[in-house]
## 1
Amino acid sequence: MDRLEIEGFIVLKGALDRAAQKKIRDDVRDIAKAAPFYAPLTPWGKPMSVKMTSAGRYGWYTDRKGYRYIDHHPNGTPWPAIPVSILSVWSDHVSAKRPPECCLCNFYGEKARMGLHQDKDEADFTWPVLSISLGDSGLFRIGGTERSDPTQSIWLDSGDVVIMGGEARLKFHGIDRIKFGTSDLLTQNGRLNLTLRVVE
Ligand code: SIN
Ligand code: MN
């Protein structure tokens, strides 16, 4: 495992071996059976290119009413529990005492991207957001605390973990594009990103 630090973002290249990646992939399939991926709508009424679902006490949600956390899937069922395989990545790298309350699951198909944004819908920014990348590689853009700050980019590959905490907690970040077909972890290609968040 290589540890890089870029503007406070800690990038753990190859943090998860193939067996760990497969277990998490299978557990996300189970999450999706209980809480299917859906196409979220931005507050401006535009569908996002990324498909989303969540596990945990809260799921991150967006529609015309804005960004927020909700305690059930849009179909009305409670979010499934966060699987142990995913919680253990948090306890290995962040805290064994304080579990996250949300695992946001983002699926990127061939043309999907995520614009530069800050993660600031949580109550306590002293906890980091931990991201797990699975499947095809994604070009991760890292900026500063202002949208106009200079940015730099790094490819995130399957098994990489990023910790966005400390000075990086409120920095802008996004995914510019996917290198479709670069990994055989997911049967239908694409990229899966999981972000673990303390919400309350
Ligand atoms: C996010 O910022 O919510 C996702 C980042 C990523 O897909 O790597
Ligand atoms: Mn984010």
## 2
Amino acid sequence: MKKKIVVLISGSGSNLQRIIEAISNQEIQNAEISMVIADRECYGAKRAESAGIPFHKIKRGTDFCSQLEACLPPDTALIVLAGFLSLLSSDFCYNWRGKIINIHPSLLPKFGGKGMWGMHVHEAVKAAGDLETGATVHFVTPEVDAGEIILQGKVVVQPSDTPEDIAHKVHGVEYEIFPKAIEKLLKGWKE
Ligand code: GRF
């Protein structure tokens, strides 16, 4: 039986695309994306559609998590947040503990927490003058970006890099570590 992954998105979905590719070329073995869920209109929805993956949009708001809970297939092995911007409730995080992961575009615990998303992260790295940044795959807990770290990948920042250059490099390392982290978890890490 293939392990079922549900991917939550809010944006362009390039990490979703990478996961689709990693499943089809067996970097992630014996798995399938059973559903993609978005909390808003986004380009990632088109990627799910093109790949023939069942897609749902659930409107952002207070009852988001109860609707999400109702539409998640019960045999879901892993919930993957791939550029997903809504916060999940404490109850939801508890019910699915150890089965929800997120990718964050910095080397956590640096540049994490509320307000640290998208270009804000890369602008903060630039402002700090850091010459190294990267991406982190971690478990999701109710505290934003604070769950246990599963895998990190680093990139070098040149002093001349703009926040956009940094974002581009970080996306590159995300495409390397996200499939590896998913494969590692599906193989039973932490069971
Ligand atoms: C990634 O940089 C990820 O770290 C962050 O959101 C971005 C999503 O990019 N959580 P994409 O939609 O996968 O292109």
